[in-house]
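Internal QA ticket QA-208
Title: Verify multi-chain structure generation after dependency bump
Assignee: T.L.

Test input:
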Amino acid sequence: MADHAHAHDSAHAEGHDHDEHPVDNFWTKYIFSTDHKMIAKQFLITGMFMGLIGVFMSMLFRLQLAWPGESFPILETFLGKWAPDGVLDPNMYLALVTIHGTIMVFFVLTAGLSGTFSNLLIPLQIGARDMASGFLNMISYWLFAASSVVMLTSLFVETGPASGGWTVYPPLSALPQAMPGSGAGMTLWLVSMTLFVGGSLIGSLNYIVTVINLRTKGMTMTRLPLTIWAFLVTAILGVLSFPVLLSAALLLIFDRSMGTSFYLSDIMVAGELLSNQGGSPILYEHLFWFLGHPEVYIILLPALGITSEVIATNSRKPIFGYRAMIGSILAIAFLSFIVWGHHMFITGMNPFLGSVFTFTTLLIAIPSAVKAFNYITTLWKGNIQYTPAMLFSIALVSTFVAGGLTGIILGDSALDINVHDTYFVVAHFHIVMGLSAIFGMFAGVYHWFPKMYGRMMNKTMGYLHFWISFVTAYGVFFPMHFTGLAGLPRRYYSSAEFPIFDELHDINVIITFFAIGGGIAQLIFIFNFFYSMWRGPKAPQNPWRSNTLEWTAPVEHMHGNWPGAIPEVQRWPYDYSKPGYEEDFVPQDVPIKEGEHAH
Amino acid sequence: MTGIITIVVLVLAVITALQLMRVFELSSKARKQVEYEVTDRDNNYQGWLMLLFGIALIVSLFWMLYAWLPVTLPKPSSEHGVEIDSLFKISMWVIIAMFLLVQPVLFYFAWRYRGSKDRKAGYYEHNNRLEFIWTIVPAIILAVLIIYGMTTWSNVMSPNNEKEPIVVEVYAQQFKWTIRYAGEDNKLGYANVRLIKDANVVGVDTLDLLSADDKITSEIHLPVGRPVLFRFRSQDVIHSAYMPHFRAQMNCVPGMTTQFQFTPSVTTADIRQDANVQAKVARINALRTEKGLESYAYDYLLLCNKVCGSAHYNMQMNIVVESEEEYAKWLAEQKTIAETL
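Actual output:
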């Protein structure tokens, strides 16, 4: 079956014979599938499951943050010995924020977002039968699944899961004597991330090769939907940056288990003088953030690509500035490699380096602004159809602007001195990742659910889910700017030890209420998703009246995507409301009329 | 028992939702309506909600600024802090202006162009002049912020030293700070964790002549108006010396010494007289009295700002800024290394 992933030119694709596929059994259809559509759904379900765990963790630790030291029976129910008498243990607090961050950044917003939509859309939107290698694609999912299992297992070890923050800086993460979570829990974290990086790299390679080699006839690079541009560039970012995280993790494994001193020097911990000499924790920080910064764009670019598609389709207008959008994706990708030092302004690195990184970081605001303005101009004079996906896409633009603007403060080294590692930072990255990127993911799910499951999600529940999420989202993270500017550090188990933070109590309570409300509202989405999967109304071929090729494939999934020849592309994907056509959309495989101006 | 009831409630809630869905499906069938299609009515409704949300967003921003700006840090108590706060204020004006420009337009368009079947959207693919404008204008604004920011950073990192700074070592460990003054010679003696033994808690090399007059203290006192060069060490893991009132922060990294210099400009006594600070203290003490906690007078703080383990949240030390005479008096009372080790 994997053989069918050879480069098939459309020229001899007519009547491509799929009798060669043996009939699927339960295992080859649902578990060990090499079909990109099934793998996409596997990524999505796993990502959603991990996301629920991540959200639940945040609700637990927000209880402690709003009411420090108070007893909550629910904490003891779920955390057992880690919440004696209902009061969260400080080590478990750090463990919760660590695993929350790790799960959300990697398992939900990287694998859950890229893994789902790159897999679902790349072959369908470029006009290919499947990914270049269905087998490698399957491996990439199972590596992700394995890494998820290992990460969840780490929650149950006796000394607790990794607790040094999702960034797990050594020496804290290298020394089990420094904190319990740096014992077995940290080992499992490293194993999990090694598997994760492996799966991510294999997936990314597949995406790149597929987009470059397997486009159907007429699908030139400048006729690709912006989703594909985003997924392609994201995959390139991943291939170049994830190996560096792997190297950081490997050196950490060596320091932990083989007596090396890559990150360790001159340390006395828990009364014991260590023999390590010559290493530097700053090395880890450079290696980590060399991935860490591109990583946030690996998270954001697919969401932005999805937004381009959803906003254009639902405004019934071309995306404004298609080439500028491509250019800005490329500019953001390039710049993302030279800004990582802005996470390290106060590590004690050479101040000149700080200046360089301030310069490059503020530059990245320019292509980001271009994208925001292009989205807004796409809405102008549009005929907006308010599907739930469209609502989430507009919310993405709003949160992207809000979060991006505070990046201008944080990227300025002199200003970062006082806000680094405070709640100001927490507000910024949650608004761009926890809001923008997640909204992009929701938009993608609502928009392509008919393609994935052949049924429609419930519109009313979608509206309800959206509005509660949007309001609570801002309600949680806007106030954090102020607690940050009051000097409240992040990763603090309690602010009650400092009288100056006493007046922040009310703000913390408000944040927690919004967080709990927002968290519970996600259940509406979960219910809608699973209910519609079984009992939603059957989807028509092209429910959103969209131009892209995935809607020309039959509703009922088949290996090879199209029953006959793959459609040939005649035009770009954004001919919505084009003068000269009665319908307000013109799919990509419709030939150019005589005298028509083609984009 | 609560657990069982919770589970029962959840199961009933799901069953209720399922039944509601059945009612919804049947009523849609009866009305012969395609449930999932977005109608003009939907577009109108959602469009208006978007406009309302946009207004609420802007209003809530102003409300939050009004309600919560007072809890943010008071005026800076260091010389470079004044420059940093100026840069901060200007940057905040710029980003708030951008926010107030862009968000209303977004939500206005979301309302104004809500769809209906009797309209058709315009077909505009691109406009290179517009792209140029909204590339160049942010670029210019950012260029200004970059130059201003880099200059400020350079001033903070390389202060010109008219007066020789007092050298003070801040030694971080899980979970406390130890301070070592450089003494009369203003030079710190060599120290390393390998030399930690019994009472020699920071590992000072007692054979190094420079260390004889060093003084180890459990509080930080600084004379107002004199530059102080902090040198940071860590015993075990990365910590961060965060002194927010002075707009100062620097990681304490095991295996290296980092540093940060600033000049405190407002004494502890004076900051306690500041009107803004007095209002803060009043609010804080009102809350504390409610809880039966002892009352509080405003203090400068050193706190840890890089996660370092279980008690990361309670690694703090007071900083007292006082007059030259008070400082000299306090310092004279502290014992030297020669005396104690």
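Spot checks passed. The two ends of chain B are 62 Å apart (CA to CA).
Status: verified.
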